[in-house]
Amino acid sequence: MSSNIIVSAIQQPCNADKAGNLNLSIDLIKEAKQSGANLAVLPELHLGPYFCQNEDFNSFATAEPIPGPSTEILSQAAKEHEIVIISTIFEKRAPGLYHNTAVVFDTDGSIAGKYRKMHIPDDPGYYEKYYFTPGDIGFKPIETSIGKLGVMVCWDQWYPEGARLMALAGADILIYPTAIGWDPADTNEEKQRQLDAWITIQRAHAVANGLPVVACNRIGFEASPDDASTGIEFWGNSFITGPQGEFLAQAGSSEQIILTQELDRGRSERVRQVWPYLRDRRIDEYGNLIKRFID
Q1: Active-site residue 117, yes or no?
Q2: Catalytic residue among 91, 154, 216, 222
Q3: Residue 55 a catalytic site member
Q4: Cα–chain center distance at 197
Q5: What whole-number percentage of the chain has pLDDT above 70?
Q6: Which of 120, 187, 253, 275 could form a cystine bridge with 236, CB 3.0-4.6 A?
């Protein structure tokens, strides 16, 4: 990884027009490159609406193999614009076997690697266990021409274990493509608590591991397929932090924006020298972390 890298988090809406969504992503990637970006991060499952609001057999028809039609287009864009791209695809791995998969394209258009979402939620409006098999690749940074990218996906962002394992495996940046939002029926106070928690936990990953964090969310209201009067109001607020959790760039809740920031990897090394958390870890006392609960 070079000393400096310019990253762009692309905050965009995702509607029912798959081709339109992909074309918008490509246009914004091109714009990011024109601004000097070496890396463009797209929101989770940016090719369409967040279909996990209900359990519908027909949604499986939108899944694609990897490589496949959409990855071919994104690969061409990465090569044409000489930029690393992170896209999240509803992966059809085999009949009856599907994943929520982040694909990383290097500047030559090749697929540098992929990450299958490890933590799969099952909450009201987020019925992902119906669709996605938990990932089996593990928490392994993806080697690219610009460095080792610690890519995880949405629900993974709440788990310090994943961030730590990525850091221990040499990740240069922690990156979280995301699709998260509010229930419009919640109070403003509850909405603020949820947003604050989401931001705080990811800033804490930066602090605990001495690494920059890129969180990229979608925007817009997406009605529930079961009841158009309800749905998810995706809260945007994509952000980029430095290795002490300090905000370097932050978006609003509803704007389509390319959030771009230059990162200095040398700063991560300096921060780790002053705050040597990895040195002082008591690895001899952490055995119980592999238990579900310590009874």
Answers
A1: yes
A2: 154
A3: no
A4: 17
A5: 99
A6: 253
Q: What is the rounded distance in angstroms from the CA atom of residue 150 to the CA atom of residue 143? A: 9
Would strands 227-235 and 181-182 be described as parallel, antiparallel, or unpaired? Answer: antiparallel
Close Cβ partners of 283 (under 8 Å, ≥ 6 residues apart): none
Average pLDDT over residues 213-228: 96
The tens digit of pLDDT for each residue in 144-203 reads: 999 999 999 999 999 999 999 999 999 999 999 999 999 999 999 999 999 999 999 999
Does the active-site annotation cover 222? no
Catalytic one of 33, 52, 117, 128: 117
| Chain segment 85-120, per-residue pLDDT in tens | 999 999 999 999 999 999 999 999 999 999 999 999
Instruction: Read off the tokens for 174.
Output: 């922690």
- Report the alpha-carbon distance of residue 30 to residue 88 in Å, rounded: 18
List 14, 33, 44, 114, catalytic entry: 44
